[in-house]
Design goal:
Length: 450
């Protein structure tokens, strides 16, 4: 019996299989695009059809073009108006008069986070990235006393002490021809202050070479192990019922009525990382920007020095209090202008109203729809802020357009606004007055502009 001949003809199974898969994928994508464009609840909203069809348009500008979608959204507003659909699921509004309707207090209505916006951050169980409204409130409540007006007064000596240490460190570098990066300097400053608030002892970043530049470049990686150790220490102290003269944020949490599941080392480490990241992310940028404009503009420096002079007769032995500094209009104008141009978080911060639809003019936004507004758009609106990219503190003096305050949102607003909204303006206050006073007493500093 002769052996059967082997069939050497090429198999057609794989190509047919691939064809079926590609056909199914094509049908799925096409039906999804058609649904998004014509049948989705947001189908009638203004905006680019390409952006509305799928998330690929946003992906291209944010990933391939490296974060340029923010500016593409600005173009959409110029083309389509104040309300635009920027992807299949999300609406963005550029109208300061509507800001308080999106970012509301907890007493107004429930507000939830859009999960897609926190994707990849890694701190999902911290208060900042908690999706559910009520769980967010429970997690945030124990933190608020330390970032309230009373909390500022309690920690004022700590902030003053760290500001003095920073000024002394910079004084020590005078004449050394050292080049320092202000972002690194102020990241170290903010890290030491927030470590004092959270744990009762500084991170000592300001004593490190180059002000702990690694922390400035990779703050989360640099601080991770330290945060875990500090949380574990706070837990031990709480278990031992040790009495401390100076209360700290995490000792307070350990003695609060939060359930044990909310006090795990892992969750509280994530909470600490979120707070640390917030403090060392936005504060240093604002401080560096304000310092640059003070150092590079003699008119600003001299005018601020004249305003500070009555409070500085016994500086640095007896520095002025924040309550005194807050009464200085030009200093306050500098701080507000610096925070305007440093933006806080530039990108939109989408919020969802899970219970009720939102109404913007003739547009009814379905409940549960992510709606965002961005500080960059509001802070650079030339109708509200003429010459919006110029540092002009004088725009905040005297009688000015009330829309300026309405559009000024470096900390966002509502129940999810920045936890440190009362702390962050204090940091520039103390550094600015020390910096200017060094200048006015002939302790000369030079900016890169000479």
């Amino acid at each position: 019996m002769e052996p059967l001949l082997e069939d050497t003809r090429p198999s057609v199974f794989l190509p047919q299989h691939v064809t079926l898969l590609l056909t199914a994928l094509g049908v799925y994508l096409m039906s999804t695009w058609i649904y998004n464009l014509y049948f989705h609840p947001l189908a009638g909203f203004p905006g680019s059809k390409i952006a509305a069809a799928s998330g690929l348009y946003e992906f291209y500008y944010d990933v391939v073009k490296k974060g340029q979608y923010l500016y593409k959204i600005e173009e959409m507003h110029r083309q389509y108006g104040p309300i635009v659909r920027i992807n299949p699921y999300e609406i963005v509004i550029n109208d300061p008069s509507y800001y308080n309707e999106v970012y509301v207090t907890s007493n107004t209505r429930r507000t939830s986070l859009w999960p897609a916006y926190r994707s990849g951050v890694g701190f999902d169980d911290c208060h900042l990235l908690t999706e559910d409204h009520h769980l967010h409130r429970r997690r945030r409540k124990p933190l608020e006393p330390f970032f309230s007006r009373i909390g500022i007064i309690r920690m004022e000596e700590t902030i003053i002490s760290e500001a003095k240490s920073l000024n002394n460190r910079l004084e020590g570098l005078k004449g050394s021809s050292s080049v320092i990066c202000l972002d690194h300097v102020f990241t170290a400053f903010a890290a030491d202050v927030i470590a004092e608030v959270c744990y009762g002892s500084p991170s000592k970043m300001m004593t490190k070479d180059e002000f702990g530049a690694d922390c400035a470049i990779h703050p989360d990686t640099a601080a991770g192990s330290m945060m875990t150790q500090r949380v574990e220490q706070a837990q031990r102290e709480s278990a031992e019922t040790r009495v401390r003269e100076k209360p700290t944020l995490f000792r307070h949490i350990m003695t609060s009525d939060m359930p044990a599941s909310e006090q795990s080392v892992e969750r509280l480490t994530n909470e600490a990382m979120a707070i640390f990241g917030g403090a060392t992310g936005t504060t240093p940028h604002a401080l560096a920007l304000i310092s640059y404009y003070i150092l590079s503009n003699q008119e600003i420096r001299e005018r601020l020095g004249e305003e500070l002079a009555p409070l500085m007769s016994d500086y640095p032995d007896n520095p002025p209090k924040s309550t005194d500094l807050e009464k200085l209009p030009y200093l306050q104008a500098i701080i507000k202008e610096g925070l305007r141009l440093s933006y806080g978080v530039m990108r939109r911060l989408p919020r969802r109203s899970p219970d009720v639809a939102l109404q913007y003019k003739q547009w009814t936004i379905p409940k549960g729809t992510p709606v965002g507004m961005g500080a960059y758009s509001l802070h650079t609106n030339s109708d509200v802020y003429p010459e919006p990219f110029d540092f002009i503190p004088e725009r905040w003096l005297g009688a000015y357009d009330p829309r300026m305050n309405e559009s000024w949102v470096p900390f966002s607003r509502g129940s999810r606004k920045c936890l440190g909204s009362k702390y962050e303006p204090i940091h520039p206050l103390y550094f600015a007055h020390g910096l200017v006073w060094c200048q006015s007493t002939n302790k000369k500093w030079q900016s890169s502009n000479g």
